[in-house]
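Good morning,

Attaching, inline, the backbone tokens for the sequence recovery test we're adding to the shared suite. The designed sequence is right after.
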């Protein structure tokens, strides 16, 4: 229904009307006359099949695959009597096996979905019963749009409901959306305001109004609608996303809520936005599909040659009777007709040219590769108990072929744990770090692991500014409301400095201009699970915010209060002031307060807090802060540290503690949320003392400074203050700090009233609402007065510099795409080793299209000519050799405005020039980039350069580039899980990317590439072996090998060893790959699987088939039975294929040995057993007791050994020459590993034999230390190999937690990782 509504959205109505179901009590919901009958119920069904439809529907889906259709076509040909080759029943066995395995997997997955649906549908909640007039316990599946539900704290929301009533006196409700978008921070929702329910307050029966809202859609952050109070068009109450509680979220920090169901079941936003793992085709898979076309060509060529041979052979018997061709008509003796039939006969015989098990085995190999990767202890992050996740199972080999990495900065390279460091207020700087701290290197403590206390609502390690402390100690309502902000002023008493009011308002803005949620007490609900209310007064509670708040505890409830009118008209605004007696500012503790509270009180916080930053002020009744943004949390904590503490927040009020005033409540008129277009957030409050309406705004410096009042451009003194502020902001950015700029504006009553009317009209508009609201907000956020700016430190994650350096050494180009200032991004680029001092920096900051084009062309010419830009650079380069000059590296920095011009679709040449310039740069930093620009950059490199791209990020603004890239990786960091949910792989730290690519990526690509080549080889060698026999059978289509062996060789006898190798084999150890990143280059260069790989495998298979067939032919001569001849040939074929695989194996462990032995024994024993019975297949003679007789003859054993040696000898010789005379870097590393292993064993034996060796070795350094081991580049230049010690920790997971195990490496998992 939801999808139907979406489709009808193009031509039909764009909204729908929902009426309360109790207004039509006599009509069942599904009756045609019921207005809500067409809307989906809350019953969900995610299963694809039923018992009756499973077989036909599953087969229909499987037959959509080309490979399955091909083999079904082959089976159908075999049922045609004139071209039948094998027994009808036997020919079906391989296809049935493949289809059955896939069907069982699909059935198992669907059964799991069925059990999940059943469990969810039978959950219960309290729904209002029209007949009984109260809430009753009801299963989720029985809920429909138009029903009312009652939910308690920590209860899961069963459908998308409109919030109408809350236990909170301010009409707010907090929800956790982790099940929807992965974010664990709390979000605040508010009840619908503007409805008069009378003296009794809200009740389901009192709500009789129709609700008009959007058609069901997947936009979880958008909701448009209104409640029609009467027939008048202007008598409406607007609705937005803050009034809706979405299915799957949790009620938090709220005793109970009641709401009206608007979307249910499959029409809820949660289910409509639910996306399964996206299917991506890997680079290697595209190459495989290309080579499958060559397989088809080989098949047609072989069949055509046999058909021609059959026709020519039959033509020599013209006018003669042919006894060995069954006569049905004269047409049977026609050479052309017989050649036509033989063509299809050989399609059956040579069907193995296209490997039947190839795609099935590839899926198995990738699935088990993912299993072992996710169980790698080195990719597990203990502080958050998160390990590597794989959400796309079919692109593991792409991890080993990445050429470009596009990375976000905040939360990806940095911790995204913000710490307030400094600020500037009205042109004056207030640094919060000592001189010693400023001398610390950028790569040191400033960009180290975050050291922010999460158990305090103040910043424990913040060095407070004494001047700010003095100014804020006198902060009260009078001081922030009586002094004009236009120009600095000085108090006559000397209590205030020139910046007193600005300082106080600056910190007040930090405390209230945010969406931080405050929680203070335990939540409970007086309604039990059956809908019975223990305290009847609970039903009379309504949202009236005019009356004073009555303190609550576990034994008392709120009294009856009247419903509150909308807050927009100014004349109805409350003027209440909650004020404590005046008292001087108490001393502000600068040390940790963790020791003041028992430890057990801290343990319960993590269960109620947010991953994004849950803090508790231990001397303020256990206040818990829940911030959507780490920046907001840092600002609130900084304000709290200085005594301006946020105590309480609701939709229409915010309470703060002022140092010289006590608790003060500001009435919130409007909150204008942050968006990526404005890059600002604002809050409109009413001053409790003088009734001023004040707009406080914070945002990016460019977004705030551009909307300052015009007096800041004309008045010289104010102009100087702005210049100073900009200088300090630039200075903060050069230190790597994130900057936010703050401003304010005092609104006139008439101005605000006019704006309220326009904003209300924009809110109730059903079309173009977002654009109209944006226009209204921008019209208000102008002519601001400047307050100041803040500098917040976002520490670099541990291991980031080493990771980026090694990735660059691996030949991967790393781009950083960030929305931060250019100076901040450059400093982080240097600190993370993305850019070093040896690189020449190219900076592109332009203001128009022509300037961008000219500058890019200028840099391109300079690079091509290698022209120095200064005499100093020229003299420095003159000291270098010519070879060194060729290796000169460049780095480029470009801002968002210039990037928009460079990506302009109207000028294709400019786009190509920009891409050409970026390609010549080793590193690129894009500043002030929007989410759309990030996605466009990745798409440009991916499509224009045909390079394999990887994008990594942690926030919702990174989703675009993550989904655009060939490989998307999400960081499960501080900004929720949206990036993770949109990614192919998820890791907890950026440093894990190093092992994921350099080790697991290399292994996955190498294993799968060699696996595919081997699969093509074994299919071709068997096909060519059967092909040569036809020259001696008159191209009649007869076979000399039992049909059972032909059908089972690829799905049983040869199936398991290559799969085991594709999962467990390792060409190099993890330590070698980590030590030498240059080894990764073999993947992007397609070193293992090239365009010639298929043809080399074909030539190898062709040669081996010639040896296998003609060795048997010349050894036996003509004095041998056809079944003995074929049995010996089959034994040689199976053994040669297994020995070929053994030669290609790098690392032997017990599963590989076992699979090899079991495969050959299964074939050998199967032949003995099957030949012990007499079967009447289609041949006139069956191979009865042939295997037993054949293996007892000496010629059989001699021939098997001789043919296998002769068939594999050329490959063995070529490999030996390659490894000794022309070794590549991989072979050199393998040789050195072997030497290092032998040396370690000898040293161990010497220690055991020599009693004094242990003490002597412990006293001095090791002679074979890691620092003495040459890198790959050094080994290549000196024609030596590498010596790397193998030291890989074992991995074990128990109940989702990783543990280290001591002792030797045991088992398959340890061998893999």
């Amino acid at each position: 229904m939801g999808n139907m509504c979406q489709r009808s959205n193009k031509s039909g109505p764009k909204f729908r009307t929902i009426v309360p179901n109790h207004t039509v009590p006599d009509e069942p919901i599904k009756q045609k006359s019921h207005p809500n009958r067409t809307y989906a119920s809350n019953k969900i069904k995610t299963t694809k099949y039923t018992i009756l439809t499973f077989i036909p529907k599953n087969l229909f889906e499987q037959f959509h695959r080309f490979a399955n259709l091909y083999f079904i076509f082959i089976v159908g040909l075999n049922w045609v009597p004139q071209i039948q080759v094998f027994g009808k029943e036997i020919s079906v066995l391989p296809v049935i096996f493949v289809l059955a395995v896939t069907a069982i997997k699909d059935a198992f997955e669907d059964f799991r979905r069925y059990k999940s649906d059943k469990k969810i549908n039978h959950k219960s909640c309290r729904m209002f019963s029209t007949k009984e007039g109260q809430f009753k316990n009801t299963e989720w599946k029985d809920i429909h749009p138009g029903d009312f539900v009652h939910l308690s704290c920590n209860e899961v929301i069963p459908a998308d409901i409109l919030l109408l009533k809350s236990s909170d006196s301010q009409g707010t409700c907090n929800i956790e959306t982790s099940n929807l978008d992965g974010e664990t921070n709390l979000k605040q929702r508010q009840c619908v305001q503007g409805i008069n329910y009378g003296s009794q307050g809200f009740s389901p029966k009192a709500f009789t109004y129709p609700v008009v809202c959007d058609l069901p859609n997947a936009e979880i952050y958008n909701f448009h609608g209104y409640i029609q109070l009467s027939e008048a068009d202007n008598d409406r109450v607007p609705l937005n996303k803050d009034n809706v509680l979405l299915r799957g979220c949790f009620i938090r920090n709220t005793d109970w809520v009641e709401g009206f169901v608007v979307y249910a079941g499959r029409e809820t936003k949660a289910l409509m936005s639910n996306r399964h793992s996206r299917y991506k085709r890997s680079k290697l898979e595209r190459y495989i599909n290309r080579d499958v076309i060559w397989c088809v060509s080989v098949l047609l060529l072989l069949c055509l040659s046999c058909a021609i041979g059959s026709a020519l052979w039959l033509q020599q018997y013209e006018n003669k009777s042919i006894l060995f061709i069954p006569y049905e008509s004269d047409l049977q003796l026609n050479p052309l007709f017989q050649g036509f039939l033989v063509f299809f006969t050989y399609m059956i015989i040579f069907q193995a040219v296209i490997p039947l098990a190839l795609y099935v085995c590839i899926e198995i190999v990738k699935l088990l590769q993912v299993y072992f990767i996710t169980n790698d202890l080195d990719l597990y992050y203990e502080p958050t108990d998160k390990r590597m996740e794989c959400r796309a199972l079919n692109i593991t080999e792409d991890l080993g072929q990445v050429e470009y990495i596009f990375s976000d900065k905040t939360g990806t390279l940095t911790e995204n744990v913000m710490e307030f460091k400094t600020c500037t207020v009205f042109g004056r700087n207030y640094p919060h770090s000592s001189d010693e701290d400023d001398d610390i290197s950028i790569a040191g403590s400033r960009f180290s692991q975050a050291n922010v206390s999460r158990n305090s609502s103040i910043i424990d390690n913040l060095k407070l500014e004494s001047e700010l402390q003095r100014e804020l100690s006198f902060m009260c309502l009078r001081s922030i409301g009586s002094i004009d902000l236009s120009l600095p002023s000085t108090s006559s008493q000397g209590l205030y400095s020139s910046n007193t009011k600005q300082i106080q308002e600056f910190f007040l803005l930090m405390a209230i201009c945010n969406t931080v949620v405050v929680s203070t007490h335990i939540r409970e609900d007086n309604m039990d699970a059956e809908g019975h209310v223990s305290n009847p007064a609970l039903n009379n509670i309504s949202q009236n915010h005019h009356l004073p708040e009555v303190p609550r505890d576990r034994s008392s409830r709120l009294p009856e209060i009247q419903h509150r009118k909308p807050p927009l008209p100014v004349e109805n605004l409350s003027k209440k002031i909650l004020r404590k007696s005046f008292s001087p500012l108490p001393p502000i503790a600068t040390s940790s307060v963790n020791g003041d509270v028992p430890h057990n009180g801290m343990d319960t916080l993590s269960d109620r807090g947010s991953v994004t930053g849950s803090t508790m002020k231990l001397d303020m009744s256990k206040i818990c802060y829940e911030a959507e943004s780490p920046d907001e949390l840092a600002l609130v904590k900084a304000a709290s540290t200085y005594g301006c503490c946020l105590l309480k927040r609701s939709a229409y009020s915010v309470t703060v503690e002022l140092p010289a005033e006590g608790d003060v409540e500001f009435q919130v008129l409007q909150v204008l949320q942050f968006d990526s277009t404005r890059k600002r957030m604002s809050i409109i409050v009413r001053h409790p003392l003088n009734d001023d309406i004040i707009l406080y705004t914070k945002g990016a410096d460019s977004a705030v400074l551009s909307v300052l009042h015009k007096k800041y451009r004309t008045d010289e003194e104010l102009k100087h203050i702005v210049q100073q502020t900009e200088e300090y902001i630039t200075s903060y950015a050069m230190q790597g700090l994130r900057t936010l700029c703050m401003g304010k504006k005092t609104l006139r009553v008439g101005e605000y009233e006019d704006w309220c009317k326009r904003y209300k009209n924009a809110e109730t508009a059903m079309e173009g609402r977002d654009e109209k609201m944006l226009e209204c907000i921008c019209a208000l956020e102008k002519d601001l007065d400047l307050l100041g700016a803040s500098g917040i430190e976002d520490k670099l994650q541990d291991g980031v510099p080493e990771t980026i350096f090694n990735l660059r050494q691996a030949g991967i180009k790393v781009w950083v795409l960030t929305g931060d200032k250019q100076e901040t991004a450059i400093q982080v680029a240097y600190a993370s080793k993305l850019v070093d001092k040896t690189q020449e920096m190219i900076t592109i900051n332009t203001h128009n299209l022509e300037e961008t084009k000219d500058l890019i062309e200028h840099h391109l010419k300079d690079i091509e000519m290698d022209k120095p830009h200064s005499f100093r650079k020229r003299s420095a380069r003159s000291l270098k050799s010519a070879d060194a000059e060729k290796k000169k590296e460049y780095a480029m920095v470009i801002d968002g405005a210039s990037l928009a011009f460079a990506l302009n679709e109207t000028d294709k040449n400019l786009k190509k020039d920009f891409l050409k310039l970026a390609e010549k740069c080793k590193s690129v930093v894009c500043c002030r980039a929007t989410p759309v620009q990030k996605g466009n950059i990745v798409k440009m490199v991916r499509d224009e350069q045909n390079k394999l791209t990887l994008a990594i990020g942690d926030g919702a603004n990174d989703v675009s580039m993550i989904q655009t890239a060939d490989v998307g990786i999400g960081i499960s960091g501080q900004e929720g899980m949206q990036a993770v949910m949109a990614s192919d792989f998820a890791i907890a730290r950026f440093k894990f990317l190093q092992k994921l690519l350099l080790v697991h990526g290399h292994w996955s690509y190498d294993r799968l590439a060699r696996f595919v080549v081997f699969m093509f080889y074994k299919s071709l060698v068997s096909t060519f072996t059967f092909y040569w026999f036809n020259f001696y059978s008159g191209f009649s289509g007869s076979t000399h090998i039992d049909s059972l062996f032909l059908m089972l060789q690829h799905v049983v006898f040869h199936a398991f060893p290559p799969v085991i190798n594709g999962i467990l084999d390792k060409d190099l150890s993890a330590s070698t790959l980590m030590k030498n990143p240059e080894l990764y280059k073999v993947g992007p260069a397609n070193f293992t699987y090239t365009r010639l790989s298929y043809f080399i495998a074909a030539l190898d298979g062709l040669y081996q088939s010639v040896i296998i067939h003609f060795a048997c032919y010349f050894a036996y001569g003509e004095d041998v039975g056809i079944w003995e001849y074929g049995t010996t040939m089959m034994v040689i074929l199976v053994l040669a294929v297994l020995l070929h695989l053994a030669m290609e194996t790098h690392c032997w462990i017990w599963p590989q040995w076992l699979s090899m032995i079991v495969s050959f024994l299964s074939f050998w024993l199967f032949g003995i057993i099957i030949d012990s019975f007499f079967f009447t297949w289609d041949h006139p003679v069956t191979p009865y007791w042939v295997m037993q007789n054949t293996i007892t003859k000496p010629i059989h054993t001699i021939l098997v050994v001789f043919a296998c040696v002769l068939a594999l000898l050329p490959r063995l010789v070529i490999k030996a020459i390659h490894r000794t005379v022309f070794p590549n870097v991989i072979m050199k590393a393998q040789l050195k590993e072997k030497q290092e292993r032998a040396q370690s064993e000898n040293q161990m034996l010497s220690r055991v034999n020599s009693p004094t060796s242990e003490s002597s070795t412990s006293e001095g350094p090791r002679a074979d230390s890691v620092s003495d081991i040459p890198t790959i580049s050094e080994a290549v230049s000196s024609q030596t190999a590498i010596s790397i010690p193998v030291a890989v920790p074992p991995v074990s997971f128990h109940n989702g937690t990783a543990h280290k195990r001591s002792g030797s490496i045991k088992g398959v998992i340890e061998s893999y990782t």
